[in-house]
Write a structure and sequence with these properties.
This protein is of the alpha+beta class. The protein has 3 helices and 5 strands; from the N terminus they run αβββαββα. The chain has a 5-stranded antiparallel β-sheet. The longest helix is centred in the last third of the chain and has 36 residues.
Length: 114
């Protein structure tokens, strides 16, 4: 099975900062049951919020022969990357909203002491 039949030349990744990175596949080596894929960052590579996660997580990773990434934040198409980024953002907003509510309750409790 060739890499071309498993993965497109362009992949997408979602960072912990909820940025969507466009990755160009520059090398793929077939191993026993998977491919070792090396990529380069396409687009704005001067943003530290993009280059650092890219170098740590997405510069090299593994794909199964079914096209599934061992890194669950790598996607074969932009739609899946967008959906993951949106889901992650919605979850973080919920967490931050709950934290804010908790802080407000504590402040109200302290204010009621005096």
């Amino acid at each position: 099975m060739s890499l071309a039949s498993v993965v497109p030349n362009t992949l997408y990744a979602v960072t912990d900062f909820h940025d969507i990175l466009t990755l160009k596949v520059v090398e793929a080596i077939e191993l026993n049951d998977l491919f070792r894929v090396k990529t380069e960052l396409v687009g704005d590579s001067t943003n530290e919020n993009q280059t650092y996660p890219f170098e740590c997580n997405f510069e090299m990773f593994y794909l199964t022969k079914q096209g599934e990434a061992y890194n669950t934040l790598v996607f074969l198409n932009i739609e899946d990357a967008i959906n993951r980024a949106k889901s992650n953002l919605e979850e973080e907003i919920l967490v931050k909203t709950n934290e804010l509510s908790s802080l407000q309750l504590k402040l109200d409790k302290i204010n009621s002491i005096v």
